[in-house]
Amino acid sequence: MLKNQVAIVTGSTSGIGLGMARSLAQAGAAVVLNGLGDADDIEKTRAALEAETGSTIAYHPANMLQPAEIADMVASTHKTFGRLDILVNNAGVQHVAPVEDFPPEKWDAIIGINLSSAFHSMRAAVPLMKQAGRGRIINLASAHALVASPYKAAYVAAKHGIAGLTKTVALEVATDGITVNAICPGYVLTPLVEGQIPDTAQARGITEEEVKRDVLLAAQPTKEFVTTDQIGALAVFLAGDMSASITGAILPVDGGWTAQ
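User: That's the sequence. What structure does it adopt?
Assistant: Structure tokens below.
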């Protein structure tokens, strides 16, 4: 479906980003991974994904807080492959605290990584996509792009910002063959989330199953985690030709969370 296409997926060395990178590669796209971490671990991830999918997998170490590095990631991808068809803005971080105790440096980092990095990557990618006459931009938002939760001021603000940025750029490029959409997952069972479950169970004096059902999935009517495969499948569809009339859309994949 995506044979001969080239994708960048930010924040893709683990979790949702890696899941989307895998899905895009399985659909035939060459993928540039991006993310922080141990260099040896990242290389193992890159090589394993290339072996698994048969697609070319590269890596760029751009720091999402550095606009010049983001621009270099986009430019070097285009120079290496001769094209850039798909941009997935997935990188994100979180911090939880009451607003009066929220560290300003955490606010700046979350807004920078979760929101501003998407602006910088789109600013660099859109001219290349316009030149090619086609492009697909997919921004990872969250159910928190549509609703709020307490103690997540920066994250909720950033994700609401991603929704507005998605709609704005979609309108700007609507006649250029470029679509811009946002995926809004609910709780996804990533390794990061799985690692928090035993500690939460111990702290609250409840079972791990109760943590999943009554704490993490309290807001999701299905009482089922979203999977990275489900997010990846939607990303593949949005990257393809059959989604050409879907643009500026804010698409919940949240087990009914935002239907309430």
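The CA atoms of residues 188 and 227 lie 6 Å apart.
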